[in-house]
Structures are given as C-alpha cells and as structure tokens.
Specification:
Layout lengths: L1 E4 L4 H13 L4 E4 L9 H4 L7 E3 L5 E2 L2 H10 L11 H29 L7 H21 L12 H16 L10 H10 L3 H4 L6
Parallel strand pairs: 1-2
Antiparallel strand pairs: 1-3, 3-4
The structure holds glutathione (GSH).
Amino acid sequence: MKLTASLTSPYARKIRILLAEKQIPCELVVDSPWETATSVPALNPLGKVPVLETDDGEAFFDSPVIAGFLEALDIPPHFIPQAGMPAVRVRQTEALADGILDAAVLAYLETLRPAEARLQSSIDRQHDKINRALARLESQLTGEFFHDDRISLADVAVGCALEYLDLRAPGLDWRAHYPRLKAFLAQIGERDSFVSTRPPA
Ligand SMILES: N[C@@H](CCC(=O)N[C@@H](CS)C(=O)NCC(=O)O)C(=O)O
C-alpha cells in the first residue's frame, strides 16, 4: 500500500495516524499538490492529498473514504463502529473536525494574498465557522473521548484539526476559550501516532 501525502496536510495526517495505530505497513510518498511537478492529479483528478493506492493499483481519496477503506480491512483496533447510529455519530464528529480544516485552509489561503487584495470579511467568515464548530465540540466532549470510552476516528479527526489551528491560525488562541478541548489535545497529542506524524516545524 502507498499513501501520497504532504507532511503538513491535516487530512493526510488523520490517515497516517490510523495507519500507525493499526500498525499497517504503508509506503509514504511525500508530494505537495501545490508544486508544479506534482503527481497528485494523475492519482486524484481533484488534485488533493491524501491518496491511498492499494497493492492492486486502486486509488482511494478523500480522507473519510480512505478511513472507511482501512476499517474495511478489519484490522484492529477499530476506529469506526461497525454500523448504525454509533457509526453515523463518529462520522458526524469527523465531518465537523474536517469542516474546521476546510475553513482554516480557506482563511489561511486568504492571508497569503497581497494585503491590498485580501478580504478580511472572508477570513472573519471562516473564523466564525471555526469558532462555532469548536463550541459545538466543546459541548459534546463529556469524557475522555468523543464517543464511548475508547478512541475513535472522531478523536483522531478533532486532534488533527486542533493541531492544524495551532499551525495555521495561532492567533485564534482556541485554548483560551475551550478548556475541555485543551485538555483533550494535551492527552491525545501524547500518543505515539500523533507524535510521529506531527508536521515539521
Ligand atoms: N476533503 C479532502 C480534503 C483534502 C485537501 O483539501 N487536501 C489539501 C492538502 S491539506 C490539498 O491537497 N489541497 C490542494 C488543492 O486544493 O489544490 C480530504 O478529506 O481528503
């Protein structure tokens, strides 16, 4: 199996964490879709990472689909409940965390524009989405993990989203407003799978 990813992609990091937790051997091919020499569009017409290629040559994207593929391999520990509402709820939390990423990426790209072309209202709009999503996550977190008493894809996705905010939107200072999320990240961030996939400084 081969995973094409950039080292800073939080979507790809979700998958790298699942691979590490499940101890699934997988070659990591570092490729940034923003570079002109990228091979990503040949694998994923949308030109985005992560892409996972199976040994049979099938390519899967995007990260929720790849997470589903890894679960379908039936290699423990499992990160998505087998079926029914528990699986839907884990996926819902993953969607909320991924939505934070989508908003953070858009806000970050806006900050890269020259000052005279930058739309502060666009950045504010994305930051509002992030804050509403963080408030929802803060209210949903009543124990150590988001669902049941064991780690799931929901926890991995939220952990990746929070650390991505640290990387690309440090000015948001989310820890000052969301103490449960702060404690959550302090704990989950110590797992080997998180430490070994942290983006380079
Ligand atoms: N929904 C996708 C999002 C993937 C995504 O946006 N990846 C970024 C890297 S963080 C990317 O490849 N962007 C390149 C582009 O938008 O052209 C997923 O979950 O895999």
